[in-house]
Amino acid sequence: MPMHHLGRCGHSPHAESVSAGTVGGFGAVGPSAANYGSAVAKLRFFFGTMGSGKSTQALQIHHNLRARGLTGVLATKLDRSGGQVSSRLGVAAEALEVTPGMDLGAVLGPDAEGSAARAVRRQAGGPVTYVVADEAQFYDETQVEQLAHLVDDHGVDVYAFGLLTSFQGRLFPATARWLELADERSELQVEARCWCGARATHNARLIDGRQIYEGDLLVVGDTPPSGPDAQTSMELDEHRVTYELLCRSHWVQGRTGPDPETHHLVRNERIDS
Ligand SMILES: Nc1ncnc2c1ncn2[C@@H]1O[C@H](COP(=O)(O)OP(=O)(O)O)[C@@H](O)[C@H]1O
Ligand SMILES: Cc1cn([C@H]2C[C@H](O)[C@@H](COP(=O)(O)O)O2)c(=O)[nH]c1=O
Prior knowledge:
This protein has helices spanning 54-67, 104-108, 115-124, 141-154, 173-181, 226-229, 248-253, 269-272; strands at 43-48, 72-76, 84-86, 92-94, 96-97, 130-133, 157-163, 184-187, 202-207, 210-212, 234-236, 239-246. It is α/β, with parallel strands linked by helices. The longest helix has 14 residues, at 54-67. One of its GO terms (cellular component) is cytosol. It is an enzyme of class 2 (transferase).
């Protein structure tokens, strides 16, 4: 029997499924009577900086599951290339575009009805038994909870890939929710590097080449070398937005490169205040 058909105690998760909407909710303390889905399925959260290989690994996992005949979807939200998961290694694949407020239980669940659910099942090649979710930091917190319900109630395996912290050095709200709910949390093993050679732990946002610490949380953009010249480089109010990977020390200092003249501190008062 394929792995995804085994529920807890060997029961089929589909036979004992309970609609996501009926579960007590994550605010409730202690296990819910309805939480008796698959013992095998897990909510996995993989995190790293930009350029740490998240999309590459998401594509690999989806490819390997598909290659063994498992039916599931690749999903993304606000990917740079729109409607697909794209890796800087050059691989890309069509993906379900998760939009704000989209009810993932209603779209991905085994009992889901309607044209969106049918389209998803067509893309999955059958009932959704796994979800590979890229750009997971952009999901609504409610959507993270909906995916956790799919794991517990329907035995759907979820593999989520996202950033830990924003350009402000704070957890994304969705990331906090992934960390709170995940069965497994893993840091990506490919070490992105700061210009100084240390492991990059922070994502800096640069406006016209200068690091900033305040602004909108979500601004789709890219890292050099593709960033500055790429079509995907983001223009915001006629300013060029790029991202740079830095070690904590250089992120705090606002030092985005070796030359103190051109890679100088712009404002570090935010972190001290
Ligand atoms: N030409 C290349 N040769 C080998 N690896 C590359 C090349 N270009 C990019 N990469 C790898 O791709 C990684 C970025 O992968 P990607 O999946 O796009 O990252 P993320 O989704 O985390 O932003 C880089 O850390 C680097 O290891
Ligand atoms: C740090 C940070 C990043 N973003 C955006 C920029 C990119 O579009 C994505 C991350 O993509 P990747 O696949 O991990 O390279 O997130 C943002 O909106 N806000 C931020 O603080």
